[in-house]
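Posting this for the archive.
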Amino acid sequence: MAIQNNRLTAAEYEHNFSDVRPPFDKKEAALLEANRCLFCYDAPCMKSCPTSIDVPKFIKQITTDNIKGSAHTIFESNIFGAGCSRVCPVEKLCEGSCVYNLMHEDPIPIAKLQRYSTEKAIKDGWQLFQRKASTGKKVAIIGAGPAGLSCAHVLSREGIDVTVFEKEAKGGGLMTYGIAAYKVTPEFCQDEVDFITSLGGITVEYGKELGKNITLAQLKQDFDAVFLGIGVGLARQLDIPGEELEGVVDAIEFIYSLRSKTYNQIPVGDKVAIIGMGMTAIDAATQAKRLGATEVTIVYRRTRDEMPCTQVELDLAMLDGCDIKWLAAPREVIGKDGKVTSLVCSRMELGLADTSGRRAPVDTGKTFTLEVDMVIKAAGQMPFETLVIANDFQNSNGKIVVKKNSTNIEGVFAGGDCVNGGKEVVDAVQAGKDGAGAIMDYLGIGNSKPLISEAEASAFNSLDTLLSTL
């Protein structure tokens, strides 16, 4: 069979793309898990969270049925707390640090409890924050992803008027366009963006792209400061013969189509090869399988010990029936009549360790061939180097160089993937917070703790707040 769409029935699509980690179905289930928490002093779960969410506090608030207070505790540190509860690799962050792991017991389901509080807040439209009076200062933010909107929310809480320029038709960045559909739906992402911007003082202008219909020079003239949260997005090429054949696609493009079309509109091969072993590669592999591909093979040039994805993600791919070829690298794509027919792979072995202690893969000279009609490239993403250079930013291989989020250009700040080259959503959120802090220092505006409305104060000052400090 060739690459085609509409492989499955509507019922099969609905089942395959249903919530992979469903929420608590009952309040009692959430309370049962929350009450298992030991509320550790100097909690390792909190220390392992890039945004430093006070995990023991928000869980304690759940145990006293103060869901509004719990949501506020989470959003105060991470305004994308709802989305992160679905997509964070918690097994290597908060849940991976839970002391129950040392007791050989299941860790507290922190992400599921976080989802329990935050999704109710979004669904019910709780106004948990109150803007300070306008300072008269204006900041432009380029990119409405986690870094940009996190920065915008912190600035707006302090009375700074923010305009966000986003090249896509919707906000959310990676959350909206780059993550598997069974983790977060486009509808959820839109609700999250609306919740963040409902604070006020944040205007989002869509269809505006730096270097095309907006310029850095104009933004510097019209605003008091500029923050870049442009992320990364250019797929790394394989640089092998046959890469131009029909049926070779970028994982980013493949996942993007899943986020912007109905499932039966998306063409997928019968036999698909995925190049890479990161989170994007896993998302592409599992979604290809769930779209109706008969065989999906993930090709990775290192071993399981070096894989960048988590074990949970790998298990998901294997449960979906994906095959794994370890110590293998793409060598050539073979085609007929301009279309992919097979993928030749080199067998690799690990050589000597480099200065970081990581052993580099070495070609053994041996090969094997996979019969495939589709190859999805997920070997990593590259920064927008041309755009960065064109705007005279100091950079390292396209990654913007910053000092405390400040670039080499006066009044221009940056954070997130465009600086670090690509990390987790939660890292981008923290980068946005740090960028906001740097901008407020630059503008001479104090950065006090966010305010809550007077109407909500009594709910937050309940007994559980006292208990969480003991």
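The chain has 20 helices and 17 strands. The first strand starts at residue 138 and ends at 142.
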